[in-house]
Amino acid sequence: MPIDAAGALAAAPRVREIAWDHKDVQLYHLGIGAGRPATDPGELRYTLESRLHVLPSFATVAGGGAPGVIGTLSVPGVDVDLARVLHAGQRLRLHRPAVPVRGRARASSRVVAAYDKGSAAVLVLRTEVTDADGPLWTDEAEVFVRGEGGWGGERGPSGRPSPPPAAPADHVVERAVREDQALLYRLSGDWNPLHADPEFAARAGFERPVLHGLCTYGATLKAVVDTLLDGDVTRVREYRTRFAGVVYPGETLRVRMWRATGPDGGGPDVGGSDGGGAGEARVVVSVVERGDAPVLDGTVVRYE
Predict the structure, then answer these.
(1) From CA 104, how far away is CA 204, in angstroms rounded?
(2) Which run of H or E residues covers position 46?
(3) Exposure winner among 109, 124, 168, 208, fewest CB in 10 A?
(4) Are 264 and 248 contacting, i.e. CB atoms less than 8 angstroms apart?
(5) Tell me: the pLDDT tens digits for 142-169?
(6) Catalytic residue among 139, 190, 226, 297
(7) Distance, CA of 62 to CA of 109 (rounded, Å)
(8) Burial of residue 148, with CB atoms counted within 10 A of its CB: 0-12 exposed, 13-18 middle, 19 or more buried
């Protein structure tokens, strides 16, 4: 039965209280591969509580609740098999220079768009997070549901991969993914069996459990912050990507980065940014062992 798009869009926001502290931040950082080498001063910024800096992508797991992909499935009008669900894209906008090491906040989530792709549906779940001092961040998850289109709705924007810049990358880094990386990352709140159960992964069409897309998302942002921003997490303003392929634990990520520069010294409008004078980096992520098979596409980090 097709998704009830009208019902999903009309549903009241889901509001919950969230809280986190340094232990949640440290676990998340370890889950995306931080702490190697363990005594490196640059890595201790992510792992040692006395000097802890919060990578902004922690916002996707803050509070330990279900991620946007899973949360979308609890919206009225959305009753689908989890095995048909894929994470299509993610966008994060920071409203302050830093995510606090500990905090309490209110998270309000609702479906803001539903697109009919014919053989599939795409839903966009937006989460606004605020605390006593005002807005903290806005998070959007795009959810692709196979076999749930066909209601005659708007097709929405194209999901075609965008070609990487023609020029050689300004920086290329490689990051090894541990065999147990998905098992560690899921402790931050994403319990989808796709990332741990071989039988469930096979039912979803994969040869074995795959790494969480948001784990790759976090590992990529860390690589950009460490390489382009001297490890300064407070400079990140926006981060968005499309998920173009899977990563299997034990593989190696190749992260290629291009600095985008415009006539004013800042970045040009890459895919709809609306900032004034902030720099931008274009990023492409692939898997080394499978001939640079694409993983993240259309990836942009905006920073100051």
Answers:
(1) 36
(2) helix 41-47
(3) 168
(4) no
(5) 988 888 888 888 888 876 666 778 899 9
(6) 190
(7) 14
(8) buried
The span from the CA of 21 to the CA of 205, in Å, is 37
Whether the CB-CB separation of 26 and 38 falls below 8 Å is answered with no
- Angstrom CA distances, 86 to 145, 214, 303, stand at 6, 12, 28
- CA angle, corner 55, sides to 257 and 189, nearest 5? 115
**Distance, CA of 180 to CA of 195 (rounded, Å):** 10
Return d(Cα 297, Cα 285) in angstroms, integer.
Answer: 7
The DSSP code for 12 is P
Termini Cα distance of the chain: 46
**Chain segment 23-39, per-residue pLDDT in tens:** 999 999 999 999 999 99
**What strands lie across the sheet with 279-287, from one edge to the other?**
14-20, 103-116, 120-131, 134-146, 85-94, 236-243, 293-303, 279-287, 252-260, 171-176
In the residue annotation, 190 being an active-site residue is answered as yes
pLDDT at 277: 52
Let me know if 195 is a catalytic residue.
yes
